[in-house]
Amino acid sequence: MHRQIFHLLLKVLVLYLMYPLYVIMLTIIQINIPMIYFVREPFFHVSVLVIVLGSAISLKLRSKTPMIWSMFCVAFSGMFFLHKNYIGALIAFFLITGTINFIYRNKFTKPLLVFLPIISGSLLLVCPVYSKYLGVWGSFVTGLNAFEGTTIQELVIRALFQTAIVIPIMAMYFLGNHSYVGLHSIVQCLRPGRAN
Predict the structure, then answer these.
(1) How many CB atoms within 10 Å of residue 65?
(2) For the segment 99-155, what is each residue's pLDDT rounded down to a tens digit?
């Protein structure tokens, strides 16, 4: 009984420490994505590329999962542009389901955890990939340099920051799915003196 209470308090502490990070992340997402223009042609190019890559990986692995995941990422990316004002609320909803499943595993919130990696893939598609490709496409169509005044280092740092924004979402998927339980056995195997 005492052990269960200790584990519950430890989980609440972890969530309490992560809470400011999620508030900052959701604020950045809610501000950043509505500022990205939606243009059908470059979005179609990027979407086709993602689905083709997902299909190629599916053929290589002989699994439908990468293809399905890529299609859902594209679908969610389109939804981000259609409902820009509700992106933060949508992501927060799935983060809350991950939080509930982290504290108490149940059959209602566990199936919803699958949306966290889909949302992560969609954010990666919209922010670093589509937003940069939109600049390249715009430069090609108009003849004007969309990246004028921006160095390669700044573009790389911005892309890395936009990529890092999905780490907290995947961390919640990791916690909500109780994947950390498997780490205990790995840590035990890596401890000195366990090899023999």
Answers:
(1) 11
(2) 999 998 889 999 999 999 999 999 999 988 998 899 889 888 888 887 777 888 888
| H/E element, 152 | helix 152-164
Range 151-169 burial, b when 16+ CB lie within 10 A, else e: eeeeeeeebeebeebbebb
Whether residue 12 is predicted with pLDDT greater than 60 in this model: the reply is yes
In order of 64, 155, 183, 184, 196, the CA distances from 190 in angstroms are 34, 39, 11, 10, 11
pTM value?
0.86
- Indicate the DSSP class of residue 100: H
**Phi–psi pair at 53, nearest 5 degrees:** -65, -40
Average pLDDT over residues 55-68: 93
CA distance linking residue 74 with residue 83, whole number of Å:
14
How many C-beta atoms lie closer than 10 Å to residue 128's C-beta? 20
| Neighbour tally for 130: CB within 10 Å | 25
Query: How far from chain centre, in Å, is Cα 92?
Result: 12
Kindly list the distances between the CA atom of residue 118 and the CA atoms of 5, 69, 113, 150, in Å, as whole numbers in the listed order: 33, 7, 9, 31
Residue 96 burial (CB < 10 Å; 0-12/13-18/19+)? middle
| 34-53: pLDDT as tens digits | 888 899 999 999 999 999 99
Nearest to 127 by CA among 168, 90, 176, 164: 164
